[in-house]
């Protein structure tokens, strides 16, 4: 057994496989158009070749028939012994009357009187009905000549005494064939280009409902209302059936989500009373000195569990789809975001690292219409997260960027990788650096922050601070009436 060489290259995939993979990478619109154009091009090529063959064959037969008709008329004169000299012919035909030895007996004005137009072999083939074409130079003409031959005169032992040979020029046939070839070569690409444009538009119109379904599906996410559905085309076809089926699937998913939220809300609500009772009993036992060190060790876990239950209940209520203006417990108002940022920073005087505001946050008012409690809870979550991971300090800033109010919470910690900056907003997602539950994180702070901010038309994102991470909260800015006396 021979061993494979270490430098042997793997075999290249077959060309057909490579073409298939390239074809598969094309979009549906491109594949449909390519298949259609290949089919049309094949049909046009076959049709063009058939047209060319039929046209040239028909013209050749017509020329040969005209030459044979002239030869037959002269053969009748030869049979009657009344051969005129020269023999009259029509057009540019060439006609000769040959004897049994192939010598010229008579001919037309355009024919050579000394040299026969055809050889003995060509004469036998022409008499047998085979197509014979000879150079026109034999008769001093350009191009080629289509030959027809008819036996005439009295019969002899070797056949008839004479042979009437008529030849017609094929220059017109050749010119017509060239014209047809040029037209086909010029028209085919233009016709294919026009068909490609038409096919692209027609296929695009046919796939427009599918594109509408794709855009509708792309718009539906966690922030969408439960009643949002995909557009159903008015036509009664497969695309309409697909849209109806997908909407039915979305209805089932919405029902399952409602049941899940109801279960979480009910479970969280029911857990609050037992947890409050446990906390009360532990605090009483700790104050009375009962149970030793157990109450002091269990109370932090109970507090963390109570916080988790409150977060779950808040998320369930946020997911109910109630509009912000309908939330009577937290009504919207014009909030000075800069002042709120300073208040939040002041709460962290005894934090692990200093929490400061930038000088810009102490300037004029930065206003947004939002529930102050929601924005405070969102910023508190971000600052808690930043304090847990910062090395030396946490900085808060608020400013107006265009028509948006941006609040930035910056820490100088280990940062968050670009691939994880969106994943951390999923519930119960904690990165490797934050998997220790002693750090205080439950994996719900950032999801709650995004849910609260999105209720008021905003959003939150993470950016690289080099080192550390910047959490940017963006909210619509409050637009003041220029006539407002407060300005």
Distance between the termini: 93 Å
* Secondary structure tally, helices: 9
Shape: rod-shaped
Number of domains: 3
Share of residues in strands: 15-25%
User: Helical percent range?
Assistant: 40-55%
The quaternary state of the protein chains shown equals single chain
Low-confidence stretches: 322-329, 434-438
Largest sheet: 5 strands, antiparallel
Spell the H/E element sequence.
HHEEHEEEHHHEHEEHEEHEE
Overall mean confidence score, pLDDT? 80
Structural class: alpha+beta
Number of strands: 12
Rounded to an integer in angstroms, the radius of gyration calculated over CA atoms is: 48 Å
- State the strand order across the main sheet: 2-1-5-4-3
Written description of the protein model:
By secondary structure, the protein is an alpha+beta fold. It folds into three domains: 24-218, no CATH class; 238-318, Signal transduction histidine kinase, dimerisation/phosphotransfer (DHp) domain (Helix Hairpins), CATH 1.10.287; 329-476, Heat Shock Protein 90. Helix content is 48%, strand content 16%. It is built from nine helices and twelve strands. It has helices at 15-25, 28-79, 120-127, 171-219, 238-288, 294-318, 337-346, 372-389, 445-454; strands at 94-99, 104-107, 132-135, 144-156, 159-169, 333-336, 355-357, 367-370, 394-401, 404-411, 459-464, 469-476. The strands form three sheets. It has a five-stranded antiparallel sheet with strand order 2-1-5-4-3. A hairpin with a 2-residue loop joins strand 4 (144-156) and strand 5 (159-169). Helix 2 (28-79) runs antiparallel to helix 4 (171-219), helix 5 packs antiparallel against helix 6 (294-318) and helix 8 (372-389) packs antiparallel against helix 9. The longest helix is centred in the first third of the chain and has 52 residues, at 28-79. The radius of gyration is 48 Å and the shape is rod-shaped. The model is unreliable at 322-329 and 434-438 (pLDDT under 50).
């Amino acid at each position: 057994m021979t061993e494979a060489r270490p430098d042997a290259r793997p075999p290249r995939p077959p060309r057909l496989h490579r073409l298939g993979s390239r074809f598969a990478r094309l979009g549906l619109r491109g594949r449909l158009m390519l298949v259609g154009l290949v089919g049309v091009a094949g049909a046009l090529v076959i049709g063009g070749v058939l047209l060319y063959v039929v046209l040239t064959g028909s013209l050749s037969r017509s020329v040969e028939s005209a030459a044979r008709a002239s030869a037959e008329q002269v053969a009748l004169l030869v049979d009657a012994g009344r051969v005129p000299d020269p023999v009259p012919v029509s057009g540019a035909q060439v006609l000769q009357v040959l004897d049994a030895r192939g010598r010229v007996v008579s001919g037309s004005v355009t024919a050579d009187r000394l040299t026969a137009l055809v050889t003995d072999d060509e004469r036998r083939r022409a008499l047998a009905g085979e197509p014979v074409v000879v150079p026109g130079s034999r008769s001093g003409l350009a191009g080629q000549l289509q030959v027809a031959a008819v036996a005439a005169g009295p019969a002899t032992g070797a056949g008839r005494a004479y042979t009437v040979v008529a030849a017609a020029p094929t220059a017109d046939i050749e010119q017509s064939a060239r014209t047809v070839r040029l037209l086909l070569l010029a028209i085919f690409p233009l016709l294919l280009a026009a068909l490609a444009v038409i096919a692209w538009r027609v296929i695009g119109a046919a796939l427009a409902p599918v594109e509408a379904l794709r855009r509708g599906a792309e718009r539906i996410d966690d922030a969408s209302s439960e009643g949002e559905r995909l557009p159903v085309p008015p036509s009664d076809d497969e695309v309409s059936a697909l849209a109806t089926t997908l909407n039915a699937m979305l209805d089932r998913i919405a029902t399952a989500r409602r049941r899940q939220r109801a279960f979480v809300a009910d479970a969280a609500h029911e857990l609050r009373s037992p947890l409050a009772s446990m906390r009360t009993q532990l605090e009483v036992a700790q104050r009375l000195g009962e149970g030793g060190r157990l109450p002091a060790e269990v109370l932090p876990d109970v507090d963390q569990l109570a916080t988790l239950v409150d977060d779950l209940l808040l998320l369930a209520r946020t997911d109910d789809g109630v509009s912000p203006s309908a939330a009577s417990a937290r009504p919207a108002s014009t909030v000075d975001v800069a002042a709120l940022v300073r208040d939040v920073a002041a709460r962290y005087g005894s934090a692990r690292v200093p929490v400061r505001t930038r000088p810009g946050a102490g300037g004029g008012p930065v206003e947004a219409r939002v529930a102050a409690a929601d924005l405070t809870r969102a910023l508190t979550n971000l600052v808690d997260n930043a304090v847990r991971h910062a090395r030396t300090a946490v900085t808060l800033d608020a400013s107006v960027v265009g028509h948006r109010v941006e609040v930035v919470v910056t820490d100088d910690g280990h940062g968050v990788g670009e691939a994880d900056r969106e994943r951390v907003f999923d519930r119960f997602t904690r990165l490797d650096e934050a998997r220790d539950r002693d750090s205080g994180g439950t994996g719900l702070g950032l999801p709650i922050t995004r849910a609260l901010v999105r209720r008021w038309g905003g959003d939150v994102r993470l950016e690289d601070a080099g080192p550390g991470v910047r959490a940017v909260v963006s909210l619509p800015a409050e637009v003041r009436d220029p006539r407002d006396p407060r300005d």
